[in-house]
Every structure is written in structure tokens, then in C-alpha cells.
Design a protein that fits this description.
With 559 residues, the chain is of the alpha/beta class. The protein has 4 domains: 186 residues, inorganic pyrophosphatase (n-terminal core), CATH 3.90.1640.10; 105 residues, Roll (CBS-domain); 109 residues, HprK N-terminal domain-like (Udp-n-acetylmuramoylalanyl-d-glutamate--2,6- Diaminopimelate Ligase, Chain: A, domain 1), CATH 3.40.1390.20; 123 residues, Diaminopimelate Epimerase, Chain A, domain 1. It contains 20 helices and 26 strands. The strands form 7 sheets. The protein has a 6-stranded parallel β-sheet with strand order 4-3-2-18-19-20. A 6-stranded mixed β-sheet has the order 21-22-23-24-26-25. A hairpin with a 2-residue loop joins strand 25 and strand 26.
Length: 559
């Protein structure tokens, strides 16, 4: 029976994901599965940083699958799961399968699932119109079990798993004296109930005799057949019908196309295969998985209904921060706690955005609203995300809802908040062994304000000396990266969790002056916010990119 693959919905955070982005994706996918019973898969759009690795290891959770893009792939459309067949099945059986399921093409696969070849309705039709060779049955290496099945016969003598692989097929219509002149060794002879004809064929060393019209086979004929190694089959059909049907017993492997097959991978992008499908006049094309195993069939018509991947976005709502190919996807929901960004959707979506310190707090609320029990692992992931995003409640983005949620989740997870958070931040603060690129991409986001595009990367650390040593390493990297990313301005925020302050590196025309305006920097006055040196601004009390840094930059740009 032909089936179609069932689609799943991907739950995914932003590029360069942080702990909130990944933990929220995992926990929300779990919630949606429990509520709906449908298939929701958590995913990530970038590398898992060390802080998040610590969290996942602590609670025994595997990192979500990394998704490089969400452009529409072959696996996103309706793949017709046409069952593969063995190359030794008969043409008749193949025809019946195709007629029953409305198929034009049938794939032959090996026992381990690899594609061997394809046979079409037209291939089978040609065997009736073009095959005039009386030796074709043996050339096709036809198994006796196929002959028995096709003729609805009964094996009297012989081995049904053996093959008819020599000789020709003929009908014994003449008397026994004449038969001696045209029967050769290893032939297959179709005959009636005449004892003399059956005996003659056996004595002429025929490989097989087919006795028609359900005639009985005497014990003498059976014994002679066994002694001569001759297979005996009876069929209810008359000789004319048996002769017409017998070619249908040939295996499809002899006629199927096996060379230069046009196949596609599950991960092939639709836009890239359309031209190939248009230029080739095939009705159906086989689909293979990443191991090269057969998965199903698609046709040009399948491409017309391609609707793209189904997505739920968590912890972001701006296209610049989203996984590549977002414009081709169907966004179903957005769960976020950031400012609203310029993202367009194909249709209406469920959008939940709350001014909280963490997306995980919103998801915690949704568990409660839907009366879904939170287990220890889910609680641990959600609590970790809140502690990370709120910097252990030190961030100005932190609300009472965040704090209360984290305390309750910590109880369920069985962790001590202060002790656990210190270990988690320490895991993420080990920066000395990382490259500048790895450090920068731990948590980087793009933003747009009017015609100005800028980016902000942020790291958090408990080690003041480590942060200070990074200044000289990261400034040169910032200059080159801004050019590579095509941004007008680029900022790198190094936040000291213990002192609740940040050192901000900047690059780009007017970037430093912009910060001085945004944070009212005056080098001649004693203040907590000051210009340390060219390209470096010290920001006391500034720890939040979302609530403190980005809004100040946007306001300054508008002025």
C-alpha cells in the first residue's frame, strides 16, 4: 500500500544560539508534542556554546540537530512511499502491484534497501510487443516459482526455487514422433494430457514440462521426470493461454533500467532539482536517504504542492537573526521576549511576546496554562535558561515572573540556584583556549535601525582578568569581521557578571561617537561610564544587550 511521509514541525532559535535559545526549543517542542500528539523537533541554527553544553550534559540531554538552512527540500514535500520490490518478482506480479496502487514506476531494491533499478508500465508493455524470441524465458533466468505463480500452477516434480536458464519455450502440438525433431535438451515444453507426449519430452531431456488444463500426471511420468531431472508443473489453463501468460513470469530484473538512474537525495533543495525534472520526461524519480537507501518516489506534480518547512521560532523574531532560508518556510508560531523586528510571514501566526527576561519563562507559563506536568529535566533546562539570560537575576530585564519561575523550576530540578549558576557561568567563561571567532560567535545578533545595520556580540564571564586580556585580541578581529559581515557598525560586549558592568568594543564610522552620545560619555567628568581608550567604552551597570545597549544605540541613531 502506498503511503506519504508525515511532515514534522521544527522548533528553532536564532543563529549563534545561547542557552535560552536551545533550552526553549527543546522544552517547547516537548510541550507541543504532549499537547497535540504531532511531530515537533527541536533544532539549532548554530554551534552550542560551552555554557549550554554544560547545561545539556548536566541534565543528560543530547544537543538538538543542527539545521544549516530551512529552504524547501525534497523531504518537505509529499514523497510517495512506493514499496520497493525484489528484482526477481515476475512481470505479472509487478503489473498487479502497479495497477492496484495506481503506479507508473516500480523500484527494485536490495534486501538492505539500496535501489537496484526501475521498471515502468511501458517497459512491461514492450515485453508483449517486442519480445519474439522463444529463448527469452531462459535468457531472463526465470525462477520456476514465478512460472508457477503466473500460471496459477502446481509443482509436481522439481524445486520451485530453481531457475529455467537454458533452452526455449515451445508447445507440443504434434504427435510424439514429430516432437523428437523440434524438442532440444533443456527446453520448456507446454503440452496436454497425452501420456506419450509427456514421456517423449522427458526422454528428450526437456528441463520442464507444463501440463495444461489441470490434467493428472501419472506416477510413471513423475518417476521418469525425477530420474531425468525434469521439472513438472500443472496449470488449469489451456495450452494457448499458458503460452500467452508464461512470458509474464520473467523477472523484472531482466527488463528494468539500472544504469544512469536519475535519483535525488532527501536533502536536495527543490529549486535545484526543478530544472532536472523538467528536462527529463520521466513520470517519477526515486528519492534516497543520506545512506543511499531508497525512501520513495516523487513526480513533477509533487513540486506544485511544495509548501516549505513548518517552523516555530523561539527567542527571536527578526529575519537577520533567523536561520538561512526563512523566507521559504511556513512560520506557524513565534515565542519571544525581544523587541519586534521586521519579519514577514506567509500567513497568520500564533505570536506570543512578553516583556520578560527570558523566553523560557514564557514557556514555563505555557506548561502551566496547558496543565502539562514539568519533569526534572525540563525544569532544569528552563531554569538554566532563565539564570543565563537574567545573569542570575542581576540583569535589568529580570522580572518577578522570571525570578519566581526559576525558583520553582529549581525545586523541581533539585538544584541549588547559586551553586548551580556559578558552575554554569564558569563553564561558559573559559575563553582563553578559544579563537576570536569562537568567542565572537558565542552570542552574536544583527540589528537594523533605519538605513543603518549593526551587530552586537556578547560574552559573560566571572573572570575580570580574562576579560581584560580579551580587549587586545578582539579589537583587530572586530575591524575585519565588520567588513566581512557588511555591517555599518559592530559592537562586542564583554560583561562581568560579578561587577555587573560591561566593557564595550566598537568599530565602524561614527560607532564610538554614537556610544558617547547614547551613554552620555564625558571624558572630563568623573563617572561610571567613560571612554577607556580608542574603540573601548566602560559601561558600569550595563549588562543587558536587549534592554540597555540596543535601545540606547537605536535612540541615538534616530537622533
Amino acid at each position: 500500500m502506498v503511503k506519504y511521509n508525515k511532515k514534522k514541525t521544527i522548533v528553532i532559535g536564532h543563529k549563534n544560539p545561547d542557552t535560552d535559545s536551545i533550552c526553549s526549543a527543546v522544552c517547547y517542542a516537548n510541550l507541543k508534542r504532549q499537547i497535540t500528539g504531532d511531530d515537533y523537533e527541536p533544532a539549532r541554527a548554530g554551534h552550542v556554546n560551552e555554557e549550554t553544553q554544560f547545561v545539556l550534559r548536566y541534565f543528560g540531554v543530547k544537543p538538538p540537530r543542527r539545521v544549516l538552512h530551512v529552504r524547501t527540500e525534497v523531504r518537505d514535500i509529499d514523497i510517495r512511499q512506493v514499496p520497493g520490490v525484489n528484482r526477481n518478482i515476475s512481470l505479472k506480479k509487478a503489473w498487479n502491484i502497479m495497477q492496484q496502487d495506481g503506479l507508473v514506476t516500480l523500484p527494485a531494491v536490495t534486501e538492505d534497501g539500496h535501489l537496484e533499478g526501475l521498471i515502468t508500465v511501458s517497459d512491461i508493455a514492450k515485453t508483449y510487443l517486442d519480445v519474439l524470441d522463444s529463448s527469452i524465458l531462459s535468457k531472463a533466468n526465470t525462477r520456476y516459482s514465478n512460472i508457477i505463480e503466473t500460471l496459477e500452477g502446481l509443482l509436481i516434480v522439481g524445486d520451485e526455487s530453481a531457475y529455467f536458464n537454458e533452452g526455449k519455450v515451445l508447445i507440443a502440438a504434434a504427435n510424439p514422433e514429430m516432437m523428437e525433431y523440434y524438442i532440444s535438451k533443456n527446453d520448456l515444453v507446454i503440452l496436454g494430457n497425452r501420456y506419450e507426449s509427456q514421456l517423449c519430452a522427458i526422454e528428450m531431456e526437456a528441463a520442464c514440462i507444463i501440463v495444461c488444463e489441470g490434467a493428472a500426471v501419472s506416477m510413471t511420468i513423475r518417476k521418469q521426470a525425477q530420474e531425468h531431472g525434469c521439472t513438472v508443473i500443472t496449470t488449469p489453463y489451456d495450452a494457448y493461454t499458458a503460452a500467452r501468460l508464461i512470458n509474464q513470469s520473467m523477472p523484472i530484473g531482466y527488463f528494468m533500467k539500472r544504469d544512469h538512474l536519475i535519483t535525488f537525495q532527501e536533502t536536495d533543495v527543490i529549486e535545484e532539482i526543478k530544472e532536472v525534472m523538467t528536462n527529463k520526461r520521466h513520470r517519477d524519480f526515486p528519492i534516497l536517504d543520506q545512506e543511499g537507501k531508497y525512501k520513495g518516489m516523487i513526480s513533477r506534480r509533487n513540486l506544485l504542492g511544495a509548501s516549505g518547512k513548518s517552523l516555530i521560532l523561539v527567542d527571536h523574531n527578526e529575519r537577520a537573526q533567523a536561520v538561512d532560508g526563512i523566507e521559504n518556510a511556513r512560520i506557524l508560531e513565534i515565542i519571544d521576549h525581544h523587541r519586534l523586528g521586521p519579519i514577514e510571514t506567509i500567513g497568520p501566526v500564533f505570536f506570543r511576546n512578553q516583556p520578560l527576561g527570558c523566553t523560557a519563562t514564557i514557556i514555563y507559563q505555557m506548561y502551566q496554562e496547558n496543565h502539562v506536568t514539568i519533569d526534572r529535566v525540563t525544569a532544569g533546562l528552563l531554569c538554566s535558561a532563565i539564570l543565563s539570560d537574567t545573569l542570575l537575576f542581576r540583569s535589568p530585564t529580570c522580572t518577578e515572573d522570571d525570578r519566581n519561575a526559576a525558583i520553582r523550576l529549581a525545586e523541581i530540578a533539585g538544584i541549588q540556584i547559586e551553586e548551580y549558576a556559578t558552575a554554569m557561568f564558569a563553564a561558559g567563561s573559559n575563553l582563553s583556549s578559544k579563537t576570536e571567532k569562537e568567542i565572537f560567535n558565542q552570542d552574536f545578533k544583527r540589528f537594523t535601525a533605519g538605513k543603518i545595520s549593526f551587530g552586537v556580540a556578547q560574552i559573560n564571564s566571572l573572570n575580570a582578568q580574562e576579560l581584560q586580556e580579551l580587549e587586545k585580541r578582539m579589537l583587530p578581529y572586530l575591524k575585519q569581521t565588520r567588513k566581512d559581515l557588511g555591517l555599518d557598525m559592530l559592537f562586542f560586549m564583554m560583561t562581568n557578571i560579578l561587577t555587573e558592568s560591561s566593557t564595550l568594543l566598537c568599530d565602524g564610522q561614527g560607532a564610538e561617537q554614537l556610544l558617547e552620545t547614547a551613554f552620555h560619555v564625558d571624558a572630563e567628568e568623573e563617572q561610571d561610564v567613560y571612554r577607556k581608550e580608542s574603540g573601548i567604552i566602560e559601561l558600569a551597570g550595563v549588562v543587558s544587550r536587549k534592554k540597555q545597549l540596543v535601545p540606547a544605540i537605536v535612540v541615538a541613531l534616530q537622533e
